[in-house]
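## retry 2 of 3
previous attempt timed out at serialization; input unchanged, resubmitting
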Amino acid sequence: MDKFLICSSYLEPKTQHLIPKMEDNHFKYNNSVLALPLFFVWFLWFVYWLEIRFGFDFDKNGIYPRTLSGLQGILFSPFIHADMDHLYNNSIPLLILLAALRYFYPKQSWAVIGYGILFSGIITWIIGRPNYHIGASSLIYVLVSFVFFKGIQTKYYRLVALSLAVVIVYGGMVWYIFPKVEEKISWEGHLAGLITGFALSIFYKTPEYKKIIKYDWEHPDFDPQGDKFMQRFDEKGEFVNIPMVEVEEENTPYFSSDFPVNYEIVENKKK
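## retry succeeded, writing output
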């Protein structure tokens, strides 16, 4: 019987401060926020039901590193699971993370999912051990990595809070990117997902979350020495009065004007 490595990453979820004001109308709920994760997870369970109902063996369709036949697993492996526990452990994080991705990053969500599956699968095919690698946790690591790093990069307080929430809930997953933590788990798939999510967070820009600059002092090239208000504070931060500069008036000894004057010589007729 061929060996296979599962990608499993279940952790029970454990579920503002003063920052310059920004527009908070970025996040808009729509039906896809729930429809996407529900349909994705339902499809995973449907594939598993087909396997046990009709006696299929989908494990052979997983990623088998550095073989031509193993390339098919790049697309198929996220939808294949070893048993009920494996599937259940991946279902809950997918429901949470896909909903978060779709709500907070709607413009990037489809690309992150598609390219996340593709590139994490390719990396696993390159670095993986010679066993079948199956399971959706490589995608889970893509989502965790993207949401965390993208929130930090945007510096937008709501997305930074989301990043911190991801760390609190799923921070323990980082241990499973190292070898020999658990032999049956595909640490290669987890590492591939983490790398892919980080790369996607850099590649996909989010200008809609860029901070709106309202004041001169918010510009990166702001020089406080040339600002009239900042000049009223000394090095210790104490208020001081700006010394008055007396402007000396120039005394002109004669009258000058830019207005043209025409002189006409009149002959004196009185004699």
